């Protein structure tokens, strides 16, 4: 794992390229609008309150229970798909930098993650505020985010590394990832609750083969005062270890071919 860890550590210590570039991208995108970066607040606010209120009545549940469930699911799902989708062509998008000699590829991966992370943190601020206003949830449970979110980020990063390498080698990767994520959204309990699909049923087993189910539940359940399923804890542990081992192997073996592929 020395290759990817060495580059990742170096990228974190020298973050001028990816951290500043992300903020510059956001500032440039919104500087001519009336609300500026305030537009970052509107999508999660509209989605969580609008869709949450509508679906809570369609499901016959309480808005105070369903809206927090939807809110956390939405921002965690958006973080995951935004990072992975953009990772699929991140090297091709930075071809000029790579051909110019910048071959510390974790800079580009972290740039993609940092952009998604910025949107996520704005969404998290919105969701936490809404949860405190509409939900009877004990605010102390939200402190579990300090422990669960880093684990989620680490899993998203190893997925991003693998997808970026595949995307450099196979240009169709982005379209394939987008297609897979359409079905992944339907199989992930965001607009519905996992209790509706018990684990002993066929649909329950299929849903629990979905890694995004475990990633989201691992963060969301403790934040809302529930305990994740034992299978979720096992899955997260296995994904964290084997995912990084696989990412490190692929990075060490194939990263040097990226300039040729793109």
Report what the structure shows:
This protein has 262 residues and is an all-alpha fold. α2 (16-30) packs across α7 and α3 packs across α4. The mean pLDDT is 87. The chain is built from 13 helices and no strands. Residues 22-221 form the ABC-2 type transporter transmembrane domain.
Topology (SSEs and partners):
Blueprint: H1 2-13, H2 16-30, H3 42-58, H4 63-87, H5 90-93, H6 95-99, H7 106-134, H8 145-169, H9 173-187, H10 202-207, H11 211-223, H12 230-254, H13 258-261
Helix pairs in contact: 1-12, 2-7, 3-4, 3-7, 4-7, 4-8, 4-9, 4-11, 7-8, 8-11, 8-12, 11-12
What percent of residues adopt helix (DSSP H or I)?
Answer: over 70%
Shape: globular
Number of domains: 1
Mean of pLDDT:
87
H/E element sequence: HHHHHHHHHHHHH
Tally of individual helices: 13
Termini separation: 24 Å
Task: Outline the biggest β-sheet.
Answer: none
Please give the number of β-strands.
0
**Oligomeric state of the chains?**
single chain
Keywords: Cell membrane, Membrane, Polysaccharide transport, Sugar transport, Transmembrane, Transmembrane helix, Transport
InterPro entries: ABC2_TM
Membrane topology: Multi-pass membrane protein
Domain ABC-2 type transporter transmembrane: 22-221
